[in-house]
Amino acid sequence: MQPRQQIRQQVRHARRQLSAEQQEHAAHAVMTRFMALPSVIASQHIALYLSFDGELDTAPLINACWQAGKSVYLPVVHPFSQGHLLFLHYTPTTPMQSNRYGIAEPKLDIRYLLPTHQLEVIATPLVAFDDRGQRLGMGGGYYDRTLALCAHPSATAVGLAHDCQHWGQLPTEQWDMPLPHILTPSHHWHWSATNSRPLS
Fold first, then answer.
1. pTM above 0.85?
2. In Å, how far from its chain's centre is CA 56?
3. 4-190: CATH, from 1.10.3720.10, 3.40.50.10420, 3.40.50.170, 3.40.50.300
């Protein structure tokens, strides 16, 4: 089995090779799948993220949530608790800044902070995913910690990815948090709590 960092390099390279037309098609296809999820339809507080390094473009998805009257929250790297994220309410007029990774995030303002356990849907970025719902991130563990801390009884985690990010079987660590849903342009991967195989 290939080392995690080697898989990251290969998949990120494949992702960056996608054309603007392919990116646009993928973004709208995943947006349609995401907005049709029953958990999204029933939710008000949805955590999303801004795309980076060839990730699936989340702008159409964010706009669709706004148009549906839902509140969107973006991650902010916690300034004091290493490896953790905060989630701030995001609107078209939210002041933004670049974090230590060069990713745009809202300027920290506790007036717009939502406790993680109040998030109802958490869309997660990923570098690769496999047939068991395991995700491979960038290696910082931010979303594994976020998902472990999210205590909302009906919270749903949804991975967003291009089809080229599918990997047969990923090497895992004990702290890795598998996802119940992963959406790609061509497929909705869904794993139940008792079934390790994709249901659709």
1. yes
2. 10
3. 3.40.50.10420
